[in-house]
Amino acid sequence: MNPKIPNSFRIIFLLIFAPSIFYFLIELVLTKMEKLHYTWDEQLADTQTVCKLIEKDDFMPDVIVGISRGGLIPGVMISHKLNIPFKPVHASTRDFPHWENYLPKPKDSKVLIVDDICDSGETFEKLSEYIKENINHECDVRFVSLWWNNECDFKPHYFIKEIAKYSNDVWIDFPHESWWKENSN
Question: What are the domain boundaries of the chain?
Fold first, then answer.
C-alpha cells in the first residue's frame, strides 16, 4: 500500500471506477464470445410451445413465479395464456446479484418457476433446495426455461431449446436484453 494515498481516496476511487471496470471486463468477454441472437418472434413462438407442453402434461400450477430479470417476460406471458396468477421473485446470481427466497403459499400445491435460460442451473438449484428445506406442505414445484444449457447439472422440467454453452462459448442475446439497439435507427 502506498502511504501517501489516503484510504478515503482509495474507497472513493473504487466506488467510482470499479463498476465501470467490471462492466468493461464483462463487455470484453462478451465480444469474444459468439452471440446467438434470439428474436422476439422466436421467444413468442417458444413461449407458446411451453404453454402447450404444460397443458399437454396436464400440469396446471396455482401460481407462476418469474425469476427477475429474464424470467419475468416469459412468466407473465405464460400467466396470461394459462390464466394463472403471477409472482415476480428477484433471485439473481449474475446481473445485479440479489436473492429473495420464495416459498409457495400453503394453498399452492403446484408451482411453476420460470426463467429465460437455465445457464449454470444455480438459480433453479438454489430455489429448489430452499423450497424443499423450508416448505411445510405438499407441493409439486416445476421449472421451465426457454433455453437449457445441457452442460449444467440442473435440467428443467420444460425447456424448448438446448445448447452446449460452455463448449461452444456462446452468449444468447435475448431480445429483452438489447431491444433498444435494434430500434435505435
Answer: 1-32, 36-182
Is domain 36-182 in CATH 3.40.50.2020, yes or no?
yes
pLDDT tens digits along 82-110: 999 998 887 766 555 555 667 678 788 89
Q: What is the DSSP string of the chain?
A: --TTS-HHHHHHHHHHHHHHHHHHHHHHHHHHSEEEEPPHHHHHHHHHHHHHHHHHTT---SEEEEEETTTHHHHHHHHHHHT--EEEEEEESSSS-EE------TT-SEEEEEEEEESSSHHHHHHHHHHHHH--S--EEEEEEEEEETTSS---SEEEEEE-HHHHTEEEE-HHHHHHHHT--
Confidence (pTM):
0.76
